[in-house]
């Protein structure tokens, strides 16, 4: 009887200890969740924004050239707007003409990145911010836009170097925001509701592009 009582007392002590430890762990977990939620809410307060370094790029292979402030809107993505899409554009002109247009405050449009036929990548707007590129406010807020040097009716403009460089860039964007590599989340400008654009056009090889993105994503996993 005494041995049984001692055992019961021991079990109760163990049970109380487990409850205390478990409760402390749960409280700690709740505190972490609360802290994370407060951090997300903090960036949504008007006038509060994430620290920024002038000339910083989000993609290591990019060169920074700033777009005009009139062609984008300051934000704190993905905290204020979730990013779940990449939109593919074609410049309908040269690389340099696209850069010049995006630096023009009267143009009222710009993408985050431009990829040249030689594979060079220029970033003109931080991924934190909303670029005016899709012609649809909701799509602007939830996407990263990538221009590609060339014309939609000239398949020779879409070079191997361009496809490969753009695929590496898109793979990193998808990895950063957890975007699936598929045609529901990587789309052309022509697929944006309400747009009157036709890019990237019929000569853009979507099967090839998505395969390159998947390979790039896997190689960096």
From TrEMBL:
This is N-acetylmuramoyl-L-alanine amidase. InterPro entries: Amidase/PGRP_sf, Amidase_domain, NAMLAA_amidase_2. It catalyses: Hydrolyzes the link between N-acetylmuramoyl residues and L-amino acid residues in certain cell-wall glycopeptides. The keyword Hydrolase applies. Residues 72-201 form the N-acetylmuramoyl-L-alanine amidase domain. Its EC number is 3.5.1.28. One of its GO terms (molecular function) is N-acetylmuramoyl-L-alanine amidase activity. PANTHER family: N-ACETYLMURAMOYL-L-ALANINE AMIDASE AMID. Keywords: Cell wall biogenesis/degradation, Hydrolase. It comes from the Bacteria. Coiled coil: none annotated.
